[in-house]
Amino acid sequence: MAAQIDRKELKDIVHTYKRKWEFSACFGAIDDTHIPILAPTENHADYVNRKGYHSVVIQAVVECKYLFRNIVIGWPGNVHDARILSNSEFFKIGEQNKLLPENYHVNVGGKFMGTVILGDPAYPLLPWLLKPYPENPNTIRQHREFNYRLSRARVTVENAFGRFSRWKWRFRRFLKRVDMDISNLIIVIAASCILHNICEMNNEEILLRWLEESSQATATIPLDNTHAQDDSVSIRDHFTNYFMSAVGHDIGQGD
User: Which PANTHER family does this one have (predicted)?
Assistant: First the structure.
């Protein structure tokens, strides 16, 4: 499932990320969640995730209005986030620079940049996908600032899948183990994501007392950064330098 986006809508999304979460040139965040299932009769060991239960994985790109823009459903629970991404049509299109309207660029600190999505440490660093710098006691202040900005902007996907999940509140059945053929489950999950988008677009109210904690958050396994593309590293570094500049510190106050 993928939702098309036009230039006007993209401009609104990018502006919202800049205004609300102080992250320029962003059009969404990527993450995954695990849906508990009964052990399949075939290849059941492949579905045991790092938490020790059987599951299928949903990978999603979510934007500032909490709408699903792309979903990949059905990979076995023991498959790593990066592998799911690299085998997706979304990844292939991203590598061809065809994710968004052609020639759409944003001025970031005097340099026109392509738009990006934001991921956690489990994902690869790509020209169109930014992830945090590794953190340890010696991490420099600039890198910590970048990581803080990225973490704040990723709240959109966290609110779709994370601890206080809008999608999982609406479809609480997915919080418990699902007894359904996987091929049918994929269809049901896709339908629920479409219905979620309809609810969000119609401003369906969600009361805080209704929000339930989701199933355990998926642990992440940081990937070795040695294979990151050189332009990916320079793009992340440019965002970092911009955030540390006087202009970058003021972006949350409006254009």
Answer: GH03217P-RELATED, PTHR22930
Runs of H (alpha helix) within the chain: 7-21, 81-86, 89-95, 141-153, 155-161, 166-170, 182-201, 230-244, 246-250
- Decide if 61 contacts 128 (C-beta within 8 A): no
User: How many helices (DSSP H) and strands (DSSP E) are in the chain?
Assistant: 9, 7
**Inside any domain, residue 191:** yes
Tell which residue, 115, 128, 146, has the closest CA to residue 85: 128
- Answer whether residue 1 is part of any domain: no
In a domain, residue 122? The reply is yes
Global confidence as pTM: 0.82
Residue 229 is predicted with a pLDDT of: 60
What domain range is 229 assigned to?
A: 7-208+222-248
The pLDDT tens digits of the residues spanning 148-166 come to 999 999 988 877 665 447 8
pLDDT at 1: 54
- Closest to 115 in 3D by CA, of 129, 125, 96, 133: 129
Q: Around Cβ 197, how many Cβ atoms within 10 Å?
A: 18
Residue 215 domain flag: no
Q: Which residue has the tokens 């479809």?
A: 171
Contact 228, 124 (CB under 8 A): yes
Alpha helices in 96-181 (DSSP H): 141-153, 155-161, 166-170
Cα distance between residue 235 and residue 241, in whole Å: 10
Which residues make beta-bridge pairs with 117?
28, 129
